[in-house]
Amino acid sequence: MTDLHKTGAVGEPVRPDAAPPTAYLDVRDLRIHFPTDDGLVKSVDGLSFQLERGKTLGIVGESGSGKSVTSLGIMGLHTVGQYGRGKARISGEIWLDGKELMTADPDRVRRLRGREMAMIFQDPLSAMHPYFTVGHQIVEAYRVHNDVDKKTARKRAVELLDRVGIPQPDRRVDDYPHQFSGGMRQRAMIAMALVNNPDLLIADEPTTALDVTVQAQILDLIRDLQKEFGSAVIVITHDLGVVAELADDILVMYGGRCVERGPAEQVFHTPQHPYTWGLLGSMPRIDREQTERLIPVKGSPPSLINVPAGCAFNPRCPYADVPAAGVTRTERPELRPVTGAEGGRHLSACHMSQEERTRIWTEEIAPKL
Amino acid sequence: MSIPEQQTAGGPEPILRVKGLVKHFPITKGLLRRQIGAVQAVDGLTFDVLAGETLGVVGESGCGKSTMGRLITRLLEPTGGTVEFQGKDITHLGVAGMRPMRRDVQMIFQDPYSSLNPRHTVGTIVGAPFRLQGIKPEGGVKKEVQRLLGLVGLNPEHYNRYPHEFSGGQRQRIGIARALALNPKLVVADEPVSALDVSIQAQVVNLLDDLQTELGLTYVIIAHDLSVIRHVSDRIAVMYLGKLVELTDRSSLYTRPMHPYTKALLSAVPVPDPGRRTKRERILLKGDVPSPISPPSGCRFHTRCWKATEVCSSQEPPLVALEPGHQVACHHPESVPEPAPATA
């Protein structure tokens, strides 16, 4: 835990002349690499985004696209080091409320973790300690950051359990995690994450392990709590339905990089990257009668040890032949703003010209969805 | 419980008939393993599977859909009721009695990691059905296995590789090739795509679709994902706590669900369209699914149902056809053309 958040020696150096952050959370050129026997795994490779208080960012991607590694990186939960098993090489900047976390003292980051930023994990059964009662674990999280006696903390735990919708919270507070159902455990974990009123809440696949009816309850709960507390929320998921329910902004990740980012409506209604088209085409839709075939993305996601040169999506892209003259396949497309998009916050990393992409989307992809 | 006879006249023949299917897993205690209760995983299912169709089975975890799949493939022995496959009663057949039937009824499993033996090569895995059934395919087992690998979109050259050398989607294809080896008539797929990534999921769904057209298969597809079920199924059965609550064709289930549970289930699915989240009315069910060890009396859904009345907690609603081909088990069904006859 001693060298948490120290800058590794990968990627570009920190730019001292960079503009001071204005957003609540500002992630700049985040790179998280893991050295392994087979080679360097570039889980996250140059990711940047901003998030304001009261807004929700949805990070979408398939398994191995680097979504969870990103969230653990923001929380400062990777063990940093140049070599060795499980060690991560991290570079870039993470600004939280005007404070840079990567170069900050690890003790300071630890004090922020849990109070300023908190996390909800996918699997509540393995994220909670089976040996302690749910109440004990919430009380512990509260007392680490607040100088209060056990009685006050317990009252706070009961209050939070009640707020997240656990029936009979004053009795259930003394239950062990295994005595809770899956949905209740997820609620208890949300209570634990919220006990210190964090301003940043990261939910990593918060509903993947749950049934749809319970998923709907949890999504509503996250939305209500965000309104109430005004937190910034990052939702990480592979389910486009879940992000459409929650997110204001969407970031699509592929092979450790962002391929498209923008306001939810624009990303869903006028997507500007072939991978986003692929995700939308692969998904069976509940809201329409679909007799036609799904349009899957061919092939499978790239290995993060050997990410294709140039655009990582190139080998699977049905339009890989289209790019404009003068662009070589080994050139990596940069994230560029989509011109004409409202607000100018819609970005996409594709070599095709925007006219070409708009034409393909409106003529070839959208009618088939 | 009375079992309403199904009308299948005029349509294709049922390949599988299930009547009053029950499976209770005993809970024992103490040295003498005295039975102190039972998990009522499946409690009285009656349905037909027609030849050439895809029957989708949906429900939340713990509703008994996987147990149902294992009962109709006879991987489990039913506690009660009958299972007829092509007119033959297979309810209590032993291992030897079932062996000839195994050629016709095959299963695809959810987890492509644990359902393939890591110490066997793909050739051995896909060739196992021939060995077990003592069948010598024309041209030899190896040639036939390679044909099957080609059929499911794998490279036949990969005959000698081990499962760990394949990705999740490819492994699921190996499982499908194995299920198809003996040219089955009925394939039961238990969550065939839920362990796969979205883009891979679509590939496997399309593959299942193609194989059905090509080989004339009948599918029973069990899944919790209502979007996938809507895409693949001709008819859909909705299960809740070991019971069928609604059984109908795809379009009427999704456009005019009659059972409140189906309605709530459909409204809970997140729609991938951010513009619609404010417009949709969502029915939020309270609480969790009750335990199948002591299910609620009467209608099992009455503890979470917003339409529940006294009759719901005392009388169990039978599964009746309120419209041709639309069976519902509810005292207060939704969107019924005339006043519900079931509230007597």
TrEMBL record, chain A:
Protein source organism: Streptomyces eurocidicus (Streptoverticillium eurocidicus)
Alphabetized GO MF terms:
ATP binding; ATP hydrolysis activity
Record's Gene3D superfamilies?
P-loop containing nucleotide triphosphate hydrolases
Keyword Membrane among record annotations: yes
The name this protein carries in UniProt is Peptide ABC transporter ATPase
GO cellular component terms given for this protein: plasma membrane
Q: Where in the cell is it found?
A: Cell membrane
**SMART domains linked:** AAA
Question: Cross-referenced PANTHER family, in alphabetical order?
Answer: DIPEPTIDE TRANSPORT ATP-BINDING PROTEIN DPPD (PTHR43297:SF2), OLIGOPEPTIDE TRANSPORT ATP-BINDING PROTEIN APPD (PTHR43297)
- What membrane topology does this protein have? Peripheral membrane protein
**Annotated GO biological process:** peptide transport
Q: Which domain of life is it from?
A: Bacteria
Keyword annotations from UniProtKB, A to Z: ATP-binding, Cell membrane, Membrane, Nucleotide-binding, Transport
Tell me its family. Belongs to the ABC transporter superfamily.
What are the residue boundaries of the ABC transporter domain, all occurrences included? 27-280
Which Pfam families does the annotation name? ABC_tran (PF00005), oligo_HPY (PF08352)
Automatic annotation (TrEMBL), chain B:
A GO molecular function annotation here is: ATP hydrolysis activity
Q: What does the entry give for GO biological process?
A: peptide transport; transmembrane transport
Quote the PROSITE patterns the UniProt record gives.
ABC_TRANSPORTER_1, ABC_TRANSPORTER_2
Q: Which InterPro entries match?
A: AAA+_ATPase (IPR003593), ABC_transp_ATP-bind (IPR050319), ABC_transporter-like_ATP-bd (IPR003439), ABC_transporter-like_CS (IPR017871), Oligopep_ABC_C (IPR013563), P-loop_NTPase (IPR027417)
Instruction: Write one Pfam family the protein is assigned to.
Output: oligo_HPY
Task: Outline the extent of the ABC transporter domain.
Answer: 16-266
Keyword set, alphabetical order? ATP-binding, Nucleotide-binding, Transport
Concerning PANTHER family, the annotation shows: D,D-DIPEPTIDE TRANSPORT ATP-BINDING PROTEIN DDPF-RELATED, TRANSPORT ATP-BINDING PROTEIN
Q: Which family does it belong to?
A: Belongs to the ABC transporter superfamily.
Q: What is this protein called?
A: Peptide ABC transporter ATPase
